[in-house]
Design brief:
With 162 residues, this protein is mainly β. It contains two helices and nine strands; from the N terminus they run E-E-H-E-H-E-E-E-E-E-E.
């Protein structure tokens, strides 16, 4: 048998609908040859609902040669489903925010109850049966919204919709 080697290949970066693979099926005893396209094989591996990410903006229908693909989750990161957490227990659920306003105040009240007495050193600062309160309000000092985004990388994300 002669030694056969492939000596040169032409690069094909996009599967074409005319690329064929031969499949033999013989359930009836009569040989039947069917030809299927690479796109058909890829379609079987990417059923409706499949999500794919790419570093190019070309729609996967053009890149792969099959299906209807739509942009998915634009401007959002994904989180795996977790039935134990209400925020993440339903597929397709959304939430969160890019920023959060952290400005807030605290109010506290302090004072002496009625019918209280007391004195400090030689001078009396509290009269018998004196009652009064002091209210204090403090501010966080923050007036702007704060960035709360995790580190991220942007990609093109698509879902096969048909």
């Amino acid at each position: 048998m002669a030694d056969s080697k492939i000596t040169a290949l032409t690069a094909n970066t996009t599967p074409a609908l005319t690329d064929l693979a031969v499949m033999v099926d013989d359930p009836s005893g009569t040989p039947l040859t069917q030809k299927i396209t690479i796109a058909n094989v890829l379609s079987l591996l990417n059923p409706v609902g499949t999500i794919r990410e790419f570093n190019v903006s070309t729609n996967p229908a053009t890149l792969l040669g099959f299906g209807t693909w739509t942009a998915f989750g634009t401007g959002r990161v994904t989180v795996a489903i977790d039935a134990a957490q209400a925020e993440f227990d339903t597929n397709g659920e959304t939430g969160g925010a890019k920023t959060k306003n952290l400005a807030h105040t605290h109010t506290a009240t302090t004072g002496l109850p009625s019918n209280s007495t007391g004195s400090e050193g030689s001078g009396s600062n509290v009269l018998p049966n004196d009652s009064h309160t002091h209210s204090v309000t403090t501010s966080s000092g923050l007036s702007a919204t704060q960035d709360v985004m995790n580190p991220y990388i942007v990609v093109y994300r698509w879902v096969r919709s048909a």
